[in-house]
Amino acid sequence: MTTTRYASSQRFLHWLIAALVALALLSIELKGWLPKGSSERALVKWSHTQFGLSVLLLSLVRLALHRQGKVPPISPPPPRWQMVAARLMHGALYVLTLLVPLLGVAMMFYAGKEWSFAGLPLPTLSDPDTALAHRIEDIHETVGNVLMWLAIAHAAAALYHHVVQRDNTLVRMTWARDRSVDKSNTR
């Protein structure tokens, strides 16, 4: 890792997880447009599960890397309240990228339906509790929506830092050239 950017592994996982979260949300939204019992609807439900479980596994890896890595400084440093808000936002995003898929796993387990990840069959209850599965599904959906809105707020904050505050917040997580190096040439 350079002193101004996250490690390339952290950047890669950040954007891969973001894409998988978006694909999971899009696939489950698409499900509602497809006829019940259709093969297309089954495919998007299966895709949603694959994306969600991938988010869970990759988030565990990213969390482990984050705990070992260093956080590059923001230049110029933002106000303290923004740093506190960023820590809270990142903490919430980490928790939700773990919690939403875990709720999905619990829902599938209690539903008693056959399911798999990457071709590997996953466990279910032999005596399903569909009422509990439906309650967990409602929570999974609600918490998934919270994740979506927090991710949108996270992206908006990064763009605000990049465009308005003109600091390196966004650049630290990309492969783009750091504008802060060029500031002396533009003034």
UniProtKB/TrEMBL annotation:
Top-rank taxon: Bacteria
Pfam families named in the record: Ni_hydr_CYTB
Subcellular location(s) per record: Cell membrane
Entry's Gene Ontology BP terms: respiratory electron transport chain
A GO cellular component annotation in the UniProt record: plasma membrane
Membrane-spanning residues: 12-34, 46-65, 86-111, 146-164
GO molecular function annotations of the record: electron transfer activity; heme binding; metal ion binding
N-terminal signal peptide: none
Cofactor: heme b
InterPro entries per UniProt: Cyt_b561_bac/Ni-Hgenase, Cytochrome_b561_oxidase, Di-haem_cyt_TM
Domain Cytochrome b561 bacterial/Ni-hydrogenase: 5-174
PANTHER family: CYTOCHROME B561, CYTOCHROME B561 HOMOLOG 1
Similarity annotation: Belongs to the cytochrome b561 family.
Protein name (database record): Cytochrome b
Organism, scientific name: Dyella telluris
